[in-house]
Here is the input.
Amino acid sequence: MGMKKMLSVITVLGLVCGVLSACGNSGNNNSPQDTASAAPTQASAPASEAPVKKNITLSYLASQDWIKDSEMKLAEKFEEQTGIHIDYQIVPSDQYFNVLKAKLAAGEAPDIFGGQSGKFDLGPLYDVENNAVDLSNEEWVKREDPLFVEQATLNSKVYALTVWDPSASWVIVYNKKIFEGLGLSIPKSYEEFLKACEAIKASGVTPIYEPISDGWHHVLWFPELGVRYEEQDPGLSDKLIKNEAKFEDSAVLEQSLSQFNELMQKGYLGDNAFSNTYADTEKNMAGGKYAMTVYSIGLPAQIETAVPGSSAADYGFFPIPLNDNQDLNVNPAAPSKFISSTSKHIDEAKQYFAYLTQTENLQFFLDNEPKFTALNFPGVKAKYNEEQAAFFDTYGKKTGTVYQTAINYLNPQWMDIGKDMSAMFGKQMTPKDILKNIDKRREQQAKTAADPNWK
Amino acid sequence: MTRRTYPFYFIAIALAFYIIFTVVPSLMGIYLSFTDWNSYAKAIHFIGFDNFKTIFSSDENYLHGIKNTVIFTISTIILKTVIGLLLAVLVNKGIKLQSFHRVIIFMPAIIPMLVVGIIFKSIFHPETGLINEALRAIGLSQWTQHWLTDIDWAFKSIIAVDVWKGVGYIMVILLAGLQAISHTYYEAADIDGAGAFKKFRFITVPLLMPALMVTTVLNLLYGLKIFDTVYVLTNGGPGYATDVVYTQVFSQFSLGSYGVGTALITILFIIMTLLGYFAVKLMSREEQH
Amino acid sequence: MANKFMKNPIQNIAIWIISIIAIVPILLIVINAFKSAPEASSMNFNLPSELRFGNFSTVIEKGKLVHSFLNSITYSSLSSLFCILFSAMAAYVLSRNKTRFNRFIYFFMIMGIALPVNYFTLIDVMKWTELINTKAGIIVLYMVTQIPFSVFILYGFIGGVPKELDEAGVIDGCGPKRLFFSVIFPMLQPAAVTVFILSFLNTWNEFLLPLYYLNSANKWPMTLAVYNFFGQFQQSWNLVSADIILTILPVIIIYLLGQRFIISGMTSGSVKG
Here is the structure.
């Protein structure tokens, strides 16, 4: 190939790149909000002229469902006051972690990023000591519920702000009318639960609405009982964490899986459990074709909004009764907000966190989020109704942390456990096989993480 | 004359972009399959063939995923080619409203897979779904099935949805191929008094061969890479019944074992390269005939 | 003649059945897009009590669809155009001048169809080329992802364009550029339109590359809005349906327009006979 042709190749390439980048630039100029994070020099110029309004954009990467509408409304008010714009980048949940990981690794982190808190995950999954800003000295840390702060703390430094519903435990929501009609009372043991299911089934109603098709919901029945496992076999969780005990050898863990399988095999989950979807819960629970489901205490209100003619007062709650459980399961690990250590606007991001956690703003947040009933900050008036208050009075005395947060290397294999449990329902696996698989996957993760307990 | 008429820089532009943005990252990816790269580690180390050993020595059921992937690929190639060809011939000429049908049949290809998942989960629902309701309405309630959750039906349903979505695409390519065939061949055949079937067999099929090879290779590579159809409909379930290679890769990634996941991708890529190579060889031979 | 007459009704019935199978799931979306939220809570074929066009304006406003629509149009049309241009040039030379080296290059390029995107390593390349976080970067990436497939299709069709045209052009004194752009490229119209439609479609529905390589939601394409809608309004199937319709409408229009070109391409392609 001659020199001349080589030159023409380069010219064409240059031309093409020129055309492309020109159009890219024009795109940037059209939207003033882009400029801040891309070109900080431009952003600082107007800041010196008008010190109050900063004209800064904070990019905020989060997974679907983590950012509530009411937070976005607060962010608009925040922008009115300060000029700081929050650019929410909401990523489909199944892609979120990979996108975040790629951006962190390449030094392209957003100013604020979302992450599921959990003391076992902060280090290995998010490497917060390198990627996130230490927030220990922020004012709101003293007010946030200590159980939640603990899950956002690594080596006694706080790395994230969690604003979430502490009452969002997974419990059994039941249809009071169906129970009353059959003369049933709240079951206090697994035996009583079986009897209730049998009576409900005999009346032509499916006892339990279980949306297996989503892949994650039916898993809840197993790890949510963490508090009960610890009661039955004290010290088990500690031994599991240190690899001194195996899931496979634990009788209490096998017990709950076997009992759950029994519910399935006896037909208490109905014929359509594998096709049911989580999004249809309200509709099906309102229809009276199902008597119970595993959900948060917010479900009755959701049913009332979604289905005309239904009433929230028709529903009550009790804990998941496998293994005779009577305790309340709590999960203090929740979607949280981190500030990137590479952000050029750390102070503004902190300012945003401080704004969100002002008591009146938290109250606004709670009042406008239909799925939440309380917040993990004091001074915020919860939306408990009588039924919910009665539930916490009865069961709130003995609480404990769910297994997916209490035990390491369990949460990442959630969907795999779900597949195993479906295989158990199809009689292709035994409860023991499921526990074996959990051990195997924990070992694989622990080894990739070079955990000294698995050497 | 060839070198002056067909200059290399015509190739070079596409080639340069392709190398920079596709080949280079992939080579870097292949390197990563020889490392202990994972979501926990801060540094990446070279560990030779360890990831590949893990895959081949492990008692995880990778063979099951490979088997399903192959079944999927073969069934969709056959179904899409046969149905696609029939449709292309039908909408090419001889029916009323042919443009209308062309548009309608192509439509499913336009819909994002996420949406296809939403629609078909609803259509396949055993109780409220359209299919079972229709079957009950015409008195065939014994034919109703748990389409996506019965082990015997789930994979068939996935294949059906994939054919539904992809066949219009294949039809369009074959249609373009049909239209590239000159009228003169058919006119000559008419003079010779050849029937419709003879014309199809001796003119349409041979002249359509390049287009048929195009669709076959596309279907082959698409089928082996299948992920999203399975992911949105069953995510490999019930249990592991409909797992394919890429849903297994996805599980590896969600457990944080990026190294093992990339090694799986590398293996599949090698298989695809070999199959693709033979397909292209075959194609260029057909072309010369 | 009688034979053809007998066959036609069967063909027509067959094509109608297939068209109905193809369209029914889409009709399901269309019907539900006009319902109220409770009516649409189970996606079914019951007709809406009244046609609620308000769903569409709600979606446009809440999803900020105007902006993301313009982004999507920019990404898909520019990348598809550049892709056709460069792929056709490459496929033309590769198909006409089949040296060993060119055969290898051809195979090497179409293997790209099988290459999965490695998002983690590509981010480094995007940084080196300084295309990360730019719209131009996304256009380049979309173009590149479609090149192997386009070369593959165009290569096959260029084989059907008579080589005598090239020779005639050379005798007339055309340089390679003029020969290609004024003689060969117009001949490729049916294939080029097909490639344009398919690559427009593929890029329109793609949303992962923008997720990874753009740092501002203002630059995001339209498909991502479906996801966000799905997350936020999972109970509101009517809004999700309205959003889906708005998202696929542009592609349907492109296809409708392009499909005419395919037909006219056919008639003008009769240069041969």
